[in-house]
Design brief:
About 75% of the residues lie in helices and about 0% in strands. By secondary structure, it is an all-alpha fold.
């Protein structure tokens, strides 16, 4: 999880805790019976509604989404431009090294298709299919979380009804009434809190992460297709920069993406491989034997 997210979450948790504590005893808001009713009912309904495998997938996706950092779009653009230059210098087969090293599974598969000699049409068809079903799987996981967010307040109401029934059944017994009133009130509280502080934000976070990953996959798809068609790296850079937000473009306008020195160091290209082009621009060319 990003440091800013942790800090923001910590500050909000402190504010919520202060809100509960400002009126007196915090222990008044904790009730085990109400907690069991809300959580037991919510997850019981979840197991009845969805397959166990689907619930396990949702848990794993949520865990990975908060533990792993996604690359920024400008980082992907830089990687693809470098790979384009390398393929022009050393050939497409040289990209097999990067296929083994990259940590982005979608990019690794795309480079594998390039190395194996797939055509541009075949690569686009396979990757578009993968993107489509990736989106469907994520939408299903998001639907699970939104369903839990809808169910949770209902079982909070169930807990409130249980508390009221216990209170009415013990008319005349003050101790029993005092024991059942907290169940009636805290159950509704737990249902609303779990729905709006956990399940619904989890679903929104999953949607945001899915949109970000689809953007990265779209950039990779366009970049790999351009590499296969041997598009000029400078043209590829300008094409891929159209995916970036205006705030992330200025740093790349200064020529940061196609940097001769950086590409030399990254791919261990001899300085003789760099020749001046007409007009003062520098381009990369393979060393002639």
């Amino acid at each position: 999880m990003e440091q800013r997210t942790i800090i923001g979450l910590g500050v909000c948790a402190l504010l919520i805790a202060f809100g509960f504590a400002v009126n007196g005893n915090v222990g008044l808001y904790f009730n085990i019976a109400a907690l069991f009713i809300v959580l037991g009912g919510t997850f019981g309904a979840a197991f009845l509604s969805f397959r166990t495998e689907r619930l396990s997938i949702v848990f794993k996706v949520m865990l990975a989404s908060y533990r792993t950092r996604m690359k920024a779009p400008e980082e992907i653009v830089e990687i693809l431009v470098d790979l384009s230059v390398k393929s022009r210098l050393k050939g497409i087969l040289s990209l097999q090294e990067d296929e083994d090293e990259t940590s982005i599974m979608f990019l690794r598969r795309a480079l594998g298709f390039l190395v194996d000699g797939y055509t541009e049409v075949q690569i686009k068809e396979i990757l578009n299919t993968e993107m489509y079903f990736f989106k469907l799987r994520r939408e299903e996981s998001e639907r699970v979380l939104r369903t839990l967010a809808e169910i949770c307040p209902s079982f909070g109401l169930v807990g409130s009804v249980v508390g009221i029934i216990g209170m009415l059944a013990s008319v005349g017994e003050v101790s029993m009434i005092l024991a059942t009133i907290p169940i009636a009130l805290t159950s509704t509280l737990y249902g609303v809190v779990f729905a709006n502080l956990f399940f619904l934000p989890f679903a929104v976070h999953m949607r945001e992460r899915t949109d970000h990953e689809l953007l990265l996959q779209k950039i990779i798809l366009e970049g790999v297709s351009a590499i296969e068609s041997e598009l000029n790296p400078r043209v590829l850079e300008m094409k891929l920069k159209s995916f970036l937000t205006p705030s992330s473009r200025p740093s790349s306008r200064a020529g940061r993406l196609i940097s001769v020195k950086r590409i030399q160091e990254r791919f261990q290209i001899k300085p003789e491989a760099v020749n001046p082009a007409p007009g003062g621009n520098r381009i990369l060319q393979p060393v002639s034997n």
